[in-house]
Design goal:
- The protein has two domains: about 50 residues; about 190 residues, Vaccinia Virus protein VP39 (Rossmann fold, 3-Layer(aba) Sandwich), CATH 3.40.50.
- About 45% of the residues lie in helices and about 15% in strands.
- The protein has seven helices and seven strands; from the N terminus they run ααααβαβαββαβββ.
- A seven-stranded mixed β-sheet has the order 3-2-1-4-5-7-6, covered by helices on one side.
- The longest helix has about 35 residues.
- It comes from Segatella copri.
Amino acid sequence: MQSYAKNLIYEHNLTDFDVFITCFPIFYTTFAEKSVEIKKNTYNYMIEIIEKYFPNLTEEQKKQFEALDALYRDWNSKINVISRKDIDNLYEHHVLHSLAIAKAINFRPGTEILDFGCGGGFPGIPLAILFPECKFKLIDGTGKKIRVCNEVATAINLQNLKAEHLRGEDEKGKYDFVVSRAVMQLPDLMKIIKKNFKQKGQNALPNGLLCLKGGNLKEELKQYFKISEITPLSTFFDEEWFSQDKQLVYVPA
């Protein structure tokens, strides 16, 4: 392109402005084509990384997962929902990370799940997309993050989820499972949520807590050592990020 512009100047004695007017459509078309290509590749990656591990998604679910990118980028420009340094890793570090829970249990229709300390909607929103016949309630003590959850759910027509600005201590409902992403130390979390479990279960896994955690959990899980199950996320996913001390902890109610 640069040599083409130089030839125009040399052969036709054109000014820089003349060259700009002549070449602009070519530059613009090339840029637009590259933008479409990048967008297409990004879209393919977004869908492929989910389908790689969850190959039976419906077209509706694919559209819902795809829509999360633009929605969270928009909200992240207004509210710090996700670290701005990490927004480009939304599908690996947040969506797929949330779906690790679905690798441990296939929730049966009618299962009720509480997302404790949901932040901007993780793990609750990805799980609600994957399990449309289950009911999800998301709670968080930060009102603006709950607003994001409700707006995202409305935008993608996610009808099996509601989010409420509420402290965990004030949640009175009964659920089959509580899910969470590293909200607080596990003993403190269990003290708060023990009131929220249904006695009777309906899934292959007994009712309890499914919590995504990182780091060394030896001290934190000391009192639950005999009853808890810890699964490295690298068991489920082969991306490098999941091999970095990321785990799923299950504690029965």
